[in-house]
Amino acid sequence: MKIFLLIFTVTVYLTASSIILPENFQATFDQKITNTKKKVINYSGKVYFSNNNLLKWEYHKPTKKEVCTNGRELLVVDHDLEQVSNYLINKGFNLTIILKKAKLHSENIYVATYEGKKYTIQVDKQGRLQSVAYFDDLENKVQIVFKKVKYGKGKLPLKLLQCPAPKNYDMIRG
Length: 174
Description:
Number of domains: 1
Shape: globular
Order of helices and strands: HEEEEEEHEEEEEE
């Protein structure tokens, strides 16, 4: 009986102390970018994640844009500039890998290193994502706070994860 209780306790602790990687999630977000001169830009919008590598960011403020990726390509539709940018990715923000690499640092804080960057991840008591912070390639401090997070099973509809580009927008390939 003591061995059963010990195994049960360890299992509960390990389960409670890991980041839950959902099959999909949707959330609102606030993103704060602080440059090396302490100038701050705040963004907000919605984010959708599905199928381990499909990610869509809908920026609502201060500018309207959509950013979609499948882990290999990045499509940015900037509605203020009426411009679409398409890039092939060799390095990037792979949420699935970052969360899988995360190691417990303190009570609800995890740290992961991916592509030479250190990510600090905060989760709630159920192990669900609350925030991610890191320094980008330009040494800007990036902090993303997730709110109204909805975890789900299965894949999100593909249409929800696409960035439709109006035909009259300029196209830039990188």
